[in-house]
Amino acid sequence: MEKKKELRKRIALLKTLHKSTITHQSQSAEILAALETHPAFRAANIILLYHSLPDEVDTHDFIRKWSTKKQILLPVVVGNDLELRVYTGPADLTPGAYGIEEPTGTLFTDYAAIDFIAVPGVAFDRNGNRLGRGKGYYDRLLPRIPSAYKVGICFPFQLVEEVPAEPFDIRMDEVITQQ
Fold first, then answer.
1. How many CB atoms lie within 10 A of CB 23?
2. What is the per-residue pLDDT across 75-124, written as a single tens digit (0 to 9) for each?
3. Rounded Cα distance, 63 and 83, in Å
4. E strands, the chain, where?
5. Cα angle vertex 27, ends 116, 12, to 5°?
6. pTM summary value
7. Which of 35, 72, 88, 143 is the most exposed place for a label (fewest CB within 10 A)?
8. What gap in Å lies between CA 36 and CA 104, rounded to an integer?
9. How far, in Å, CA of 69 to CA of 65, rounded?
């Protein structure tokens, strides 16, 4: 637990050093360009994305772009859990927990139908281990979606040597960052 806290602090410090809007946007664009050419993404019909916070890979335009070609789901914080809702457009978003824009669309519960998940994180390692913000939302959600291809997306400074992993942690199938 202490190791995770230390890693979160270290990444927060690195984040302040990398805080340039231009860099953030160009790196986000490169990371998402790699994501959209990924064979598993290409083949997927139902995709779980996330509406990014200011310090995460910026997914806002990406969600709009792909929502006309694929069914996009976004998480909604409900208590200690994430509920999935269908994204139907920017007009459908409303500020939710933590100031994250959340969709008000139809509740989605057919977890087995989800083909692909892009997962945010504070840090990842090359083995696919993920460090979240510490609230456990994705730790509780991911086990319900075992068949989906899981990709962690992050900035280069978020890719670390080792993320301390617990037995219950779900590994990413792959981590995509800027080359």
1. 12
2. 999 999 999 999 999 999 999 888 889 999 899 999 999 999 999 999 99
3. 18
4. 46-48, 71-78, 81-86, 93-95, 101-103, 107-108, 116-119, 123-125, 130-131, 149-153, 159-160, 174-176
5. 90
6. 0.91
7. 143
8. 25
9. 8
